[in-house]
């Protein structure tokens, strides 16, 4: 019998890739999203996950697992509209967990973030790092992790939280992070604005590698957090240099003010993920080349 997997946000950047992989491995995928999907293989049901009554109307009772990607992810937006971000990220997660409990879902995997940890200076983020978010966005994800812990402990659902670093890849034309902003600037002949001194560092992981991690969590019934990234951090200036090598063009830049509420640096320890079989395969230069090709064709 074909099993049903719910993917929230399967019309989005990462969710669409998870849904496509799930279909290719034999799942029937129900996509719960406000937006339509271009993938005809998905059963897309429009809904706002913060509206429990409407969500209950479209949630499939036969679902065996949920991959929860739908969220408002902008750090800056969370500071200007904390209530709205709370309603989507926190209330929506609770609604999905409660429906999962009601229908006997066996696995629930949440897309979380290293932002649940907050400022670590030069220390590595691990699964044991204390939760100390700096923004309302990070706080909603930290609270979501706590809800998953409660539902795992109380109801036996295998609840996993995938703490992602900076994810980039093809299909991110609508995103506003450093990589798509750089690609749009190059295509438009405009300089890239870099916030602050450009020496802030992040771990950049390719989207297809991230998809692997979600299926490892599903297939192995993971409970608890899992830190997922490339295992190597680069400064913003390093990313610009890597893009120049990938596409063979100079990236002109202008300097803007640093943004408040952002971590100075992010380094992650992916030892646990590697022990479960995860291995990042796409390096930064190769990945940026793929993204440039994708933007150039759009």
In short:
The chain is of the alpha/beta class and 298 residues long. Helices cover 41% and strands 21% of the residues.
Overview of the structural elements:
With 298 residues, the protein is of the alpha/beta class. The protein has 2 domains: 4-167 and 205-228, NAD(P)-binding Rossmann-like Domain (Rossmann fold), CATH 3.40.50; 174-202 and 232-264 and 282-297, UDP-galactose 4-epimerase, domain 1, CATH 3.90.25. 41% of the residues lie in helices and 21% in strands. It contains 10 helices and 14 strands. The strands form 4 sheets. A 7-stranded parallel sheet has the order 3-2-1-4-5-7-11, sandwiched between helices. Strand 1 (4-8), helix 1 (13-24) and strand 2 form a beta-alpha-beta unit.
Fold blueprint:
Elements: E1 4-8, H1 13-24, E2 28-33, E3 43-46, H2 52-58, E4 63-68, H3 75-80, H4 82-103, E5 107-113, E6 124-125, H5 136-155, E7 158-164, E8 166-168, H6 178-188, E9 192-195, E10 201-206, H7 207-220, E11 224-228, E12 233-235, H8 236-247, E13 253-256, E14 267-268, H9 271-275, H10 284-297
Parallel strand pairs: 1-2, 1-4, 2-3, 4-5, 5-7, 6-14, 7-11, 8-10, 9-13
Antiparallel strand pairs: 10-12
Helix pairs in contact: 1-7, 4-5, 6-10, 8-10
Question: Which terms summarize this structure?
Answer:
298 residues, Rossmann fold, UDP-galactose 4-epimerase, domain 1, 10 helices
């Amino acid at each position: 019998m074909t099993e049903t997997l719910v993917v929230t946000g399967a019309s989005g950047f990462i969710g669409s890739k998870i849904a496509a992989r799930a279909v290719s491995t034999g799942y029937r995928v129900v996509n719960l999203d406000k937006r339509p999907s271009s993938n005809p293989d998905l059963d897309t049901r429009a809904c706002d996950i913060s509206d429990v009554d409407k969500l209950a109307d479209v949630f499939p009772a036969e679902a065996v697992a949920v991959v929860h990607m739908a969220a408002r992810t902008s750090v800056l937006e969370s500071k200007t509209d904390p209530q709205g971000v709370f309603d989507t990220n926190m209330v929506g997660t609770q609604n999905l967990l409660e429906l999962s409990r009601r229908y006997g879902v066996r696995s629930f995997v949440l897309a979380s973030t290293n932002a649940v940890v907050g400022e670590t200076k030069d220390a590595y983020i691990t699964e044991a790092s204390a939760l100390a978010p700096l923004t309302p966005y990070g706080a909603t994800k930290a609270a979501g992790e706590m809800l998953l812990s409660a539902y795992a402990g109380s109801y036996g659902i295998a609840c996993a939280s995938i703490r992602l670093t900076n994810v980039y890849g093809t299909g991110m034309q609508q995103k506003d992070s450093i990589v798509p902003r750089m690609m749009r600037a190059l295509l438009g002949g405009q300089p890239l604005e870099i916030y602050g001194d450009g020496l802030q560092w992040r771990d950049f992981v390719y989207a297809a590698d991230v998809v692997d991690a979600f299926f490892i969590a599903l297939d192995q019934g993971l409970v608890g957090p899992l830190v997922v990234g490339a295992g190597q951090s680069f400064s913003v200036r390093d990313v610009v240099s890597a893009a120049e090598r990938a596409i063979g063009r100079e990236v002109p830049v202008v300097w803007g003010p640093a943004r408040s509420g952002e971590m100075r640096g992010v380094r992650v320890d992916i030892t646990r993920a590697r022990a479960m079989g995860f291995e990042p395969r796409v390096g930064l230069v190769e990945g940026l080349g793929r993204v440039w090709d994708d933007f150039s064709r759009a």
